Amino acid sequence: MSNTQEPELTPNVEGLEADSRFVPRWTGCTGLFNEADGGNRRENEEVHYRKHAVIGREWEAQISISEYRSLATRHLNSVDADHVIELCQTEDLAVVKYNLESGELGIARGDDGTIKTFFRPRDVAYVLRKVDAGAWGEPALADGFETSELSLAISDDAHIAYLFARFEHLAIELPAHAHLVVAGFAEGSSVASEMLSMLARLGEYRFCVFELQRRVLTEAQAEILFARRKKIVGATASFEALERYRARELTEAIAADLETSIAAQELLWRDAATLIGNGDEFEDALDRRQILGYALLELRVLQLHRRLLELDIQAYEYRVSKSDIHLRSVFYQLAVSFSYQETHLVSPEAFFWRRMGKNIS
Question: Between vectors from CA 122 to CA 211 and to CA 329, what angle results, nearest 5°?
């Protein structure tokens, strides 16, 4: 048995809990969903439940609408300083709570305690983007959650600074995530819902490296890039080990997660006008499409290297391209309705729906 110390399964948050700005204090959630425009609370609750628990399958086990409501209420009333951070939504002063351990995120009105949304973005980068943009709380969180000054000052080129910032976030997330997935396989537990997210991070990591290497970097920037890549080596090695020793189980897990995620995209964008009720949900929907896109990008590259050939990637990509027709048809309407402005400075050419968001005024 190896004596190597196992990595932590959560990002480094040392010092965050001690910062009084982010310690959870609010406990006023009523357990009722906020009334949506043109609807009632029950309809609003059903829309959120269907989107996140049924179609999105953000919780590994199927949960009922009453369980979804209970989870949301318990989460928003939690004052667990070890795992929960509390922020404020600057637009309407709503309470935002994010659980660092479970990945659950809830938003509630501070005045009447009604629930605006409850879901699992499964990616701390979602929270980071909101904080960095000034939409939630302070623009600078503590250790491991802020966009480091090094990344922001590393270049006058906004694209290079953005790529380094994303690269740093991946260096924090990937080793822990890879450990979680590998441990799940070793224990025989189901980790299909985590596999696609891991592939997406590997795909984005590959994309960031490619984009940075094709730009003119200084010697100092090249050294930083090399140092960050060393942090991710363990994650790529973990995936290769799974591929070598548990190939059949790995292929089945990826196929199952692809099927679930693509089916969710097909349903979501077909009924987007009904299922997406606010700007946060719209951005989350785009993030989930991005996760799928980066995962497919990674799988395509792996197959070019004669790996995971049992997966019919072309068939999956065809289904996604058909789903994207619906995405294109509703994108502009939803973006204008929610005053959405894309903040991703660099993305693969295939992510046309991200580029569209940069032209919304």
Answer: 70
**DSSP one-letter code for 52:** I
**Are the CB atoms for 105 and 127 separated by under 8 Å?**
yes
Helices (H), the chain: 41-49, 65-76, 124-132, 149-153, 158-187, 192-213, 219-245, 247-270, 272-275, 279-304, 313-337, 352-356
Give the full edge-to-edge strand order of the sheet including 115-119: 84-89, 94-99, 105-108, 115-119
Query: Domain locations in the chain?
Result: 1-133, 149-359
Q: How far apart are CA 241 and CA 327, in angstroms?
A: 36
User: How far from the centroid of its chain's Cα atoms is residue 180's Cα?
Assistant: 16
- Residue 240 has a pLDDT of 86
What is the Cα–Cα distance from 160 to 222, expressed in whole angstroms? Answer: 12
Helix 313-337 / helix 247-270 crossing angle, nearest 10 deg: 30
| Pairwise CA distance, residues 71 & 170, whole Å | 29
**With respect to CATH, is domain 1-133 assigned 1.25.10?**
no
Tokens describing residue 131: 């904080």
Long-range CB contacts (within 8 A, 24+) of 17-21:
17/81, 17/82, 19/142, 21/137, 21/138
Question: What pTM, to 2 d.p., does this model score?
Answer: 0.66
Q: CA-CA distance, 271 to 268, in Å (whole number)?
A: 5
Q: Which long-range CB contacts under 8 A does 216-223 form with residues at least 24 apart?
A: 217/160, 221/154, 221/155, 221/160, 221/164
Range with the poorest average pLDDT among 20-29, 147-156, 271-280, 298-307? 147-156
